[in-house]
């Protein structure tokens, strides 16, 4: 009878955790414990908005050291993070420059330059990846144009989780699911695209062959000298979250809800048609096949509002928000103006004023504006996805931290007019754990793991209300959901 201790390091764009999963093969039981939680800090350095990688590494090592003090020897370790951001190394393995965040403004205008010079259809045909102004493709071009002194020293370019795995093992690896977020991987070959690398000014020598999730990169040695395997899991946190989503029906969609909302469905084949391009659908890599999805700005808007207004009691805020009238003020959450404004409160208020809507003043009114707008955008996106795949969805699985927001879950069910199944909350952590268990031979495949998730973490169902206020608001929302600077589209559209 097998029992395992699995360490999942789950880093989101707002916070990170070192989590311990105890696995009992006899009972098929998974127990999770948070060992250490910390902020994913961004700082202004050399004029750029950068990730504090040393802080992240210290916190990860502190969490591992705590387990060592508890006499817990992990069977394996895996790390998942957000996508698109990169770390540059020289020949000695030292960092070159800073790990600039996707929220930095250095890529402003670079995507438009790519569309003029390479063509939107040509880029999409090569990658099948959604056009977002901070994709790694544009980050490398910005690097070439703005930091040539950094570029001259580069020997390797790693995604954030690959870099952290390297720091633990000393081994280089390029995991596939995170690599697909770069818009630099060729959708036909699964290899780095030479033409796009050349345009971006990135050398092919900086990259190794992308590897499927589940390979052992190397070992981390604890204080007692025990070598612990480090496994390249589905390192894109959304790929991990989807892996842990109990999608038991073919007509089910998923929504990974957190700082970002990512809505999509699974497919063994990519969707890269003209209609997919028009809807700006992405084909990110998954544990098995593709995650056909669309990025939505998500709860980042609420997080920023709460930070600005110094609101700590989110439950109390949501309770007050439920008392606010529906759809008085609406915004397009995917408008590029909300990526990283100086003040999210002011930006939302200005957007409402420009549309001649009621301007939300209180924290509850601002939150209601965000929630209603997200729910309506969810409806718009799920309709786009349904049209693309040629069939309506009958269920929506909401996973991640946002699945705890019962008010938003109900709004989502009302707007989309289908049942919403909420949970598990710790989806990205669980997907990280599941990938390790499969790699260790404890489970057969993704379907096997999802059965365990469903048995261990009961779901809560939200049925759509027939008297929803959203039906009358859909046309109104559609009128403002295609602004000139929308996150997902270039200015030429």
3D architecture notes:
With 493 residues, the protein is an alpha+beta fold. Helices cover 36% and strands 20% of the residues. The chain is built from 18 helices and 17 strands. It has helices at 53-69, 110-117, 120-127, 136-146, 148-151, 160-169, 176-179, 194-200, 237-243, 274-278, 300-308, 314-321, 344-354, 363-389, 406-416, 427-439, 446-456, 474-480; strands at 3-11, 15-24, 29-39, 42-45, 48-51, 76-80, 86-89, 156-159, 215-221, 227-232, 252-257, 261-267, 282-285, 290-296, 395-399, 420-422, 460-462. The strands form five sheets. A seven-stranded mixed sheet has the order 13-14-12-11-15-16-17, sandwiched between helices. It has a four-stranded mixed sheet with strand order 3-2-1-6, sandwiched between helices. It has a two-stranded antiparallel sheet with strand order 4-5. A hairpin with a 2-residue loop joins β4 and β5. α12 (314-321) packs across α14 (363-389).
Describe this structure in a few short sentences.
36% of the residues lie in helices and 20% in strands. The chain has 493 residues and is α+β, with helices and mostly antiparallel strands.
**Termini distance?**
59 Å
State Rg. 22 Å
Total helical elements: 18
Mean pLDDT: 94
The helix content, as a percent range, equals 25-40%
What class, by secondary structure content? Answer: alpha+beta
Taking the sheet with the most strands, its summary is: 7 strands, mixed
User: Which spans of ≥5 residues are poorly predicted at pLDDT below 50?
Assistant: 488-493
Shape: globular
Q: Could you tell me the strand content as a percent range?
A: 15-25%
Number of strands: 17
Please list the strands of the largest sheet in the order they lie side by side.
13-14-12-11-15-16-17
